[in-house]
Amino acid sequence: MTQRSAFRPSPAPLVRGVTVAVLAVSLLAGAGCARFKNRNGDALEGQPVETIYQKAHRSMLSGNWSTAEEAFKRLVAQYPYGPYTEQALIETAYAQYKAGQHDDAVSTIDRFIRTYPTHKNIAYLYYLRGLTNSSRDAVFLQRVWHLDPARRDLATPMQAYNDFSIVAERYGNSRYAADARERMAKLRDTFARYEMDTALYYLRRDANVAAIDRAKYVLENYPQSAYQADAIATLASAYKALGNTTLAADARAELQKVDPNHAYLRGNWPDYPGHLRRLNPFGGDASALKH
């Protein structure tokens, strides 16, 4: 499978002219927020749009996502129109994504897409929505419970796939298209593994026809996935169990072409996890698949 590139997503490039204006006020902003406070103690109330943007952007650069988000929101509230507002919405979504506020990030992105459907950075917004959808609940599942993402609800990964597909197909010349395609390939493997886990569940319980259906689905819908050989091995095993020696032999011959070192050909596949491991919620992914 293609290795993930070193691409690092970041907020879309600032609209032309904004950077120059920001630099012009940077010295004033750096003098401290205290001098800008109004009678209510609000450091941003009534300040020029350039000053508010500078404060928010500096918070972004330091990784202070919550402070950046709040400042960008204040900018949008005080200055609802203009290039600063558009950029503030983009960076608000990015700050929310980085802070793990995935629902808020998607909401902000959807608002931007509805309001500015022809914006020059629209490809970035679809790409960022894909990143956000593919990250939902992944931290909890992978870092705390150590579960494979293929063994959870695939609704949000499927939405992420659709988002990346828009970037790759509709904005194929954008700087985000190549990485979107790589992420689509990884998601296809996730979907294929989900189907293969189900196929092996049926195979272990002698529901061989159901296992065959799942394996065929993988081969037809996720060709060239990391689980192509496992799907063929499932066909060989299920056909053999059903007594269909001809189809079993055909599947075995195909497997020898695709993966001559597959464990099925040595007679020790699938290697199902032990009973205790399957019962242990902290024991990692209890699957017969090794990828």
TrEMBL record:
It is found in: Cell outer membrane. Gene3D superfamilies: Tetratricopeptide repeat domain. InterPro entries: BamD, BamD-like, TPR-like_helical_dom_sf. Residues 48-252 form the Outer membrane lipoprotein BamD-like domain. Part of the outer membrane protein assembly complex, which is involved in assembly and insertion of beta-barrel proteins into the outer membrane. Keywords: Cell outer membrane, Lipoprotein, Membrane, Palmitate, Signal. This is Outer membrane protein assembly factor BamD. GO terms for biological process: Gram-negative-bacterium-type cell outer membrane assembly; protein insertion into membrane. Part of the Bam complex. It is a lipid-anchor. It comes from Cognatilysobacter lacus. GO terms for cellular component: Bam protein complex. CDD domains: BamD. Belongs to the BamD family.
